[in-house]
């Protein structure tokens, strides 16, 4: 028996595995983009709660690009929210120079609230 065969009608090649010929299938090549913290959180979420979406993205080769896009959107939203909240609450460089502990406490609070908003609106949605 031949180890590899090719079916011209379907365009699929097969490899002999034991007594059976199995199709030589490989997922499409994915874009090689770096995925940060937000993209990894969203990946974990869709793997657990949206298995069909995850499988469709994975098998179409679009998962990595999708996660990189989510990561960029989340990072942009976080920086924009932190900046807007700091301006609105008057957390300035003057406060930082005058009372560092107060500035750190207020900035940590702002970052925490901005993280929650990003998680709710982008990551777990």
Structure characterization notes:
With 125 residues, this protein is mainly alpha-helical. It has 2 domains: 1-30, no CATH class; 31-123, no CATH class. Helices cover 63% and strands 11% of the residues. It is built from 5 helices and 3 strands; from the N terminus they run βββααααα. The protein has a 3-stranded antiparallel sheet with strand order 1-2-3, with no helix packed on it. A hairpin with a 4-residue loop joins β1 (4-7) and β2. α1 packs across α2. It is rod-shaped, with a radius of gyration of 24 Å. The model has no long low-confidence stretch (mean pLDDT 93).
Task: Annotate the secondary structure layout.
Elements: E1 4-7, E2 12-17, E3 20-23, H1 37-49, H2 51-60, H3 63-88, H4 93-98, H5 100-123
Antiparallel strand pairs: 1-2, 2-3
Helix pairs in contact: 1-2, 1-3, 3-5
Low-confidence stretches: none
- The amount of helix comes to 55-70%
What is the approximate shape?
A: rod-shaped
Span between N and C termini? 52 Å
How are the strands of the biggest sheet laid out side by side? 1-2-3
Count every helix, treating DSSP H or I runs of 4 or more residues as helices: 5
Order of helices and strands: EEEHHHHH
User: How much beta, percentage-wise?
Assistant: 5-15%
Number of strands: 3
Global Rg: 24 Å
Structural class: mainly alpha
Mind describing the biggest β-sheet? 3 strands, antiparallel
Total number of domains: 2
Mean pLDDT: 93
């Amino acid at each position: 028996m031949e180890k590899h065969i090719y079916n011209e009608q379907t365009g699929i090649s097969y490899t002999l595995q034991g007594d059976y010929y199995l199709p030589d299938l490989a997922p499409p090549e994915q874009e090689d983009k770096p995925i940060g913290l937000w993209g990894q959180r969203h990946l974990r979420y869709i793997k657990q709660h949206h298995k069909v979406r995850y499988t469709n993205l994975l098998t179409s080769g679009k998962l990595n690009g999708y996660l990189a896009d989510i990561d960029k959107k989340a990072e942009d939203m976080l920086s924009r929210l932190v900046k807007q909240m700091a301006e609105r609450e008057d957390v300035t460089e003057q406060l930082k120079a005058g009372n560092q502990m107060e500035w750190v406490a207020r900035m940590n609070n702002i970052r925490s609230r901005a993280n929650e908003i990003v998680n709710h609106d982008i990551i777990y949605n």
